[in-house]
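Re: the multi-chain job from yesterday

Posting the exact lines I submitted so nobody has to dig through the queue logs.
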Amino acid sequence: MLHDYSLVKDIYIGINSKQSENRQTGGIMNRREFLKKTVQGSVVAGSSVAFGNFSSLLAAPPKSSAAYDLVAVKGGEPEIMFDKAIASLGGMKTFVPKGGKVLVKPNIGWDAPPERAGNTHPKLVARIIEHCLSAGAKEVSVFDHTCDQWKRCYKNSGIESAVLNAGGKIVSGDSEGYYQSVSILNGKRLTEAKVHELFLDADAFINVPILKHHSSSMLTIGMKNLMGVVWDRRTWHRNDLHQCIADFASYRKPSLTVVDAYNVMKRNGPRGVSVEDVVPMKSQIVSTDLVAADAAAAKLFGHEPGDIRHIQIASQMNLGQMDLKSLSINRIKL
Amino acid sequence: MKFSRLKQIRLGISVLFLTLIALIFLDFRNIIPSSGVKVLLYLQFVPSLLNFLNTVAVGASGFIVAIILLVLFGRIYCSSLCPLGIFQDVIGFVIRKNKNWRGFQYLQPHNILRYSILILTLLLLISGTGFLLNLLDPFSTFGRIFSNIFRPVVVIVNNFIAIVLEPLGVHTIYRVRWAVVAPVSVVVAISFLLLIVWLSAKHGRLYCNTICPVGTLFGLISKIAIFQISIDPNKCKECKLCERVCKAGCIDLQNKTIDSSRCVACFNCLVACQKDGLQFKNIWKRGVFAEKEEKIEPERRGLILSSVIWLIGNTGFTEQTKKIIQSKATTIPILLKNPVSPPGSHSIEHFTSTCTACHLCVSACPSNVLVPSFLEYGLLGMMQPKMTFNAGHCNYECTICMDICPSGAISPLEVEKKKLIQTGVAKFIKKNCVVYTDKTNCGACSEHCPTKAVNMIPYPNPKNNRLVIPEVNPDYCIGCGGCEHACPTKPYKAIYVEGNAIHKMAQKPEVKKIDPTIDYNEDFPF
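And the result, structure tokens for all chains:
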């Protein structure tokens, strides 16, 4: 079945009253209902093409009163740096609706321990979940479509236990059945993708990549991390990878992107060969603007954002601000 | 009845063994620890014997214990330890319950058939192929039935439950991916299941006493067993109660004898007899027969390999054919000289001469890499697993297959050593690569490579785009198939693993120090 996120949002708006009713009575809109609405909505789908694509507009993060476009932190432990960053953005309640479902998407791609920096730091993931829950989130789910064997990745990354201890849910991304076809209306090369249902279901989506060297995309940061919510990644690889990465970034913007740059893999990425590939940079970048977060992280790594082609393309597609000079940035040193 | 306890013990042990062995084949979540699997399968005769003949390891002495038990008590192995035998008892019990079952009758032994099968199996084994042994080995037959038929059923049920629970927010039961389907193995497994159901429903243990070469071999030895069941002609009233419960059909009341070569020591008759006419006692007085020992020398087998066979075995069934989206379809087909045998199997020769195709590793491999072969190892190696990379790649630090293999075909290695075993070498076909055909970056192969044997190097191009293309350094390659699995080109991959006929040691990945001088007080670079 095909449906695109903008439609889903349309329908969400349309049935908003019913949904909040459900929530008040403690009920939730189940998937069947969700899909039914989606199908009903797809009749209206044709018309939305005529009016152009609303997906980026409607999927934009809630307008926050945050004083900064981007926060950069340095010199602390991952969870402490996040505490500082989120506080300066007005707290997690700015991004997470009360009673809402949250998806936290770290990088859990590899069967490697935290010190190898192949995956997002488990302490950071745990702290983000805690903030979501205390902001009133109903549930916080975590998954990744891993590259190595998924159970081993979840376990050895330390993320599975961190999530469970923090009160979140760890969910499998290892079966095609979890993924639903959607259209990427703004996509130039990538026009369709099978996307994990949690990504479609979530009221708030928090993207938590780790900054790493990457053999094919030069760097993997926020946009590249979104590849983990998609089933068929080979399609991207054989259809101009950088363009596809940028195309998918147009589908649904994260409410927040938190770049883990605590330990940074400087070479042999994205899997890494040994701990000798890792440098302790003790940094973190947090932004509502995915492209800005990637641009700042690229700078931190030592690259010009414009040299990373998918950042360049995303900027041209107006998906976010690559030029950091035009942003209000809060720089925190601990 | 003084013998009633014997049957109870037999029932207890057999139900326990059947349940646990069935569970290890159905354990799609890898819950049962490898060490437990090893202990559980220690006594399985054929895997243990092959393991011993090839490795002479202490852990492989289970078959000796089985023979000692046999010499002491007759074929209690067949009733209490053999999963296929117990499985037949269960099938027969369930089916016969629902009929007007009149009971078993004495059967004449099918001597010509059973000894022919045994001799043929041994002759083939001596001439260097375990093909018939693998096909008929009861443990492996049981494994194939559970791995190829019941495991998928369990996965379907699991996935159904998962789908039902997901809307309720329960994710502890998760959907599990399908294993790669190997049609030949499925057909063989179904055929044997049907044969066993039919024979056990109608004739009890006829399969064990006619077709199973282990049963026939054990029958020869059990003739000299110390403890045997015998009829006391003075007490027997020929009421036939014992004959009716004898699954083996080996109680001859006309001659008041029991064919000990076919008696599986289930002790049903002892419980059935109301007159104390049957005894389980030391019959040592009869005299001892010289025990024969067969010596088996595995010899090198010729490998029948051709591209056609390889293609039949690999494509079509393993991955759904989807439309080709890539702007340019790849043109150069992959021709494998050798299949890739699992790490720890030392060489294709060692592997094919030791593996009984029980498919335990196929069931257990969490990455779905191990798949029953078709003809890649040759006709006689049919169904022995090989590594395929359509569904996944061999996880760098995973050692499950070598930890559980009961026959020693895949022998255990330390993780650090496993990470250096070169099962095969990646071969790059530049003309199939996206970077060459489409002039766009890809690098999926290098991404997945755990040793960076596949490295990306600058690729000069007319438009001067920043392109990188893979380069393989075979010294570091271990043949895990990460590159082949990830390679997105269709219909032919641009990188694939060519099997090593004899496994080699790869070089340790190069580790250079990186200069980590970081000044945390330095300003942000933006």
